[in-house]
Amino acid sequence: MASVEIVAEHERILREIESTDANCIGPTLRSVYDGQEHGLFMEKLDGRIRNHDRDIEKMCNHHFQGFVDSITELLKVRAEAQKLKSQVTDTNQRLQDDGKGLVSCMDDLRRCRLQQRNIATTIDRLTHCLPVLEMYSKLQEQMRLKRYYPALRTLEQLEQTCLPRAGQYRFCSIMAENIPRVRTLIKDTAMSQLRDFLESIRKHSNKIGETAMKQAHVQRAAVGRRLRKEAGLGAATEVDGHGSSPVTEQDSGILDVEDDEDDEVPGAQELVDFSPVYCCLHIYTVLGAREEFENYYRKQRRKQARLVLQPHSNMHETLDGYRRFFNQIIGFFVVEDHILHTTQGLVNRAYVEELWELALSKTIAALRTHSSYCSDPDLVLDLKNLIVLFADTLQGYGFPVSQLFDMLLEMREQYGEILLKKWNLTFRQALDQDNYSPIPVATEEDYRQFSSQFPFQDPDLDKLPFPKKLPFSEFVPKVYCQLKEFIYACLKYSEDLHLSSTEVDDMIRKSTNLLLTRTLSHCLQYAIKKKNVGLAELVQLILNTTHLEASCVYLEGFISNITDVPPDTANTTKLYGTSTFKDARHAAEEEIYTNLNAKIDQFLQLADYDWTAAQGGGAPSDYLSDLIAFLCSTFSVFTHLPGRAVEHARLPGKVAQTACMSACKHLASSLLRLLLQPDVRQVSLGAMQQFNNDVKECERFARTDPVPGFQGDTLLLAFSDLRQLLDLFIQWDWSTYLADYGRPTCRYLRVSPHTALVLLEKISRLMKDTSRKGTMFAQFRKNERDKQKLIDTVVKQLRNLISAHQT
């Protein structure tokens, strides 16, 4: 079985050798020698070779006769070829002999043709060289006249057309070598002119911007006149009947425009010669360096933009500093806008927008910084109008300016703060200059004048003859007029900001509320709390705030009138004037109470009681008489105070009643503290008698009804604690006190055990003082002992009451 497999393998190898290229037979033979039966394979190979040899021999025998026939025919052809060669040689010799004359004639013809071609070539060369010389002469003339762009075109034509046609001549080579130097000269000259142009527009940017702003102002004024003409308004009208209206840019000195605005203002482009830019652009385009030129131009303009956007350190001091800053920026972008629309690709929209974004951010940052130093509201208002004109000018050239108007809205907060500071000084000055007295009116004309300044109506006062007095002081019409001036100032800033009437109305109302609740309120508090303010001044302040509170409704109508927004519009901000003046009035009332109590304390400091006196006098103390006289005169002034916010006649009001009651309570409590003060260790019944006389004087004052309006003996209730305490000790009615203590019908209901104990101990100490027994109670020793026992008993019972009450 193994021998059959070996034979089959050998057959496969032999077939592979027969069918495989000789170069690839190595692996096949290697497989034979790697086996164990290579001898048998060699026998097989020899047998196969013998078979192939037999096949080759058979094939050769089959084709041998054809080979012999082919050799025979080839020998016949060789004889015919020798014969043909001999005939060709004879024919060639005859042809050579016959063509010698023809060749001589052809040589002559060739020489003539060569001379003719040389002559034509010379004429052609001259024809091509003459234009070169003429073109070069033209180039020299153009260079002399500084017509560089035509010269560059001539140079291009000379290089690309004329010189190639002229050929390789020495003068052409010299010209060709000189062409790059001429190009470089033209390129450098054009760049020099561009640098001069850039320097020129940098210096004249201010003038360019000023002209552009004048153009925008003239156009806006023309549009305004047309709109007023269409609306039938004609000239600018007043906002209200007081003849005040917001100023325009020309009125405020923002623009130095001639009165005759119909004169044509030259265009900003007419002030600049852009030919150096166009020439340089064309030259660099022809030279294939347009990208280099664009990069250089943009780089230089970016540098100039950074210089333009650097404001002077003192720019905030005057409006001219801001104007120069804006003019330079406008001049820069007017030039760029013109370059954008008159050249193809030197600058593109993306490049200009990038520069504008840079300029806008730096301009807004500079304005925020420098405007923060400004403390003059007029300068801020002029700056706002200048910024509006600046924005309108650039908007006319297609630049987005919404961020500038957003910044103006931010500046409005700063403007409001500056206005508040200014009006704070104005209000304080008005308060300091006020005489706190009703305004005397001598004639009808004076009355009409004050009525026009302040909305005051009083039918009762109208019926009185002249001269008469208005209930408020001069502070009231001054403050009302200043409030209107503040509203006008806010309105002026809101103009031209592209805001709706509702937004303007809301801004004015919010600013006015700040003025009322912060500035005016603080000023009123300052006037109320300042030192040495008298009660009469406080009374007049209450009257003034009452009338100012009543005028708030007129301020509401005034704002609605100038903004054309009805007061009943939804979401309309209300003025906080009513609460402001109410708070100020309440503060003044509290100050009246405080000052009045302080005055009472000053009088009480003059009290000089002899607490050990044997007997009291028959008249009240001098200090108390002076105090009662002071209170009487004071409360006569209080009859000027109103009972309600709409009243202003001389009627007793709640404020006067409260002040009177407060003074009486403070006086009663102070007298009680004076009696019970720890420094007074001993009190005699005689001192109690004198103290009782003073309290009776106070009660007499209360009965005189110093301020009308109290019902019955209401004012006497302030002294009821003192009265019951004094009655208890003077009448020595301890049995009734101790028996009825705790009952609602007790006669001494307002006397506490602790108060009674303190005062009783002071009397007991005096009675126990041995240094005084020989003089004070010598004749009443038995009565003294009995009374001392009674005092000790009462003291013990009072202490029991106190202990029971505490538990």
Automatic annotation (TrEMBL):
InterPro entries: EXOC6/Sec15 (IPR007225), EXOC6/Sec15_C (IPR046361), EXOC6/Sec15_C_dom1 (IPR042045), EXOC6_Sec15_N (IPR048359), EXOC6PINT-1/Sec15/Tip20_C_dom2 (IPR042044). It comes from the Eukaryota. GO terms for biological process: Golgi to plasma membrane transport; intracellular protein transport; vesicle tethering involved in exocytosis. Residues 44-213 form the Exocyst complex component EXOC6/Sec15 N-terminal domain. Keywords: Exocytosis, Transport. One of its GO terms (cellular component) is plasma membrane. Residues 403-762 form the Exocyst complex subunit EXOC6/Sec15 C-terminal domain. The keyword Transport applies. Component of the exocyst complex involved in the docking of exocytic vesicles with fusion sites on the plasma membrane. Belongs to the SEC15 family. This is Exocyst complex component. It comes from Esox lucius. The gene is EXOC6B.
